[in-house]
Amino acid sequence: MSAPPRPRAGAVPTAARSWLARRLLLGVAQTAAVVLLVFVLTEALPGDAAVALAGEQPDPARIAAIRTEMGLDRPAAERFAAWVLGLLHGDLGTSLTSGRPVAAYLADGFGPTLLLAAATAALLVPAGVGLGVLAARREGSLTDRLVSSVTLAVYAVPEFALGVLLITLFALRLGWLPPTAVGSGGDLSAQPAVLVLPVLVLLSRPVCSISRLVRAGMIDALRSPYAVQAARYGLSAARVRYAHALPNALAPAAQQLARTVDWLLCGVIVVEALFVIPGLGTVLMNAVAERDVPVVQGLAVVFGVIAVVLNLGADLVARRLAPRAGVAA
Q: How much is the pTM?
């Protein structure tokens, strides 16, 4: 009986390249869909900047003149083509109300939002993974039940309600922390105390979801045949747990982390409004209120591209941590 044929040496690299090519093509298609959807949705917004600039008692002739000056009277297809062409050249457009480039609005709000996102992510990873591993190691114990109950209870509290509660307790009653970022001059890094309450609010729900994902993944991985076989070979429990089970448990957590970072970078509107933080969420709210369509479109496209890139990165990390799942996918 002849031996089975050996797999070709380049089979796995070819499969990996094919998988990566499919993901990149999907990312390009998603980005194109985001651009089209953003334009269609902003076209559906009631009113426009011409009406807002015309004043409280707008004159139809003045509105028509403003629309002509801004190019809003051109057909939608023509404006869409010009906008896409500008995007391909890195031009996000110009504000209709102030005349500033949309990139300037992005630069103004990106700093505070990035600082909040970085501080939250830096605490989220060790806290979420640590709680998940702790609960999985003590499955069924009092510690496991306590971690599961507390994370479920915290996850059920809306960010706005938790923020109000923290402000009332730590800012108004105890006076330990500032209630908002008013008076910070926009430089949040110079006053770290301003970041404490917003970061706690931003951490509350993601740390719960990631810890529960890690716990479930660790328990499933420790019960899997390869983990049982590794223990039979004499590997220590710590090595089985952290070198074999944990990477597989982190694969779904990595995708959840990407969605969380996307949520943070794209402007957490409720938290920024509650703590008066001049981030991207505040910029977007002001643009919507002023019917400043180019700013809304530019920020929405940037948000969409960030989401596509982060999810692509999460897929790559998940495939690296759990290659069998990646190949199967």
A: 0.70
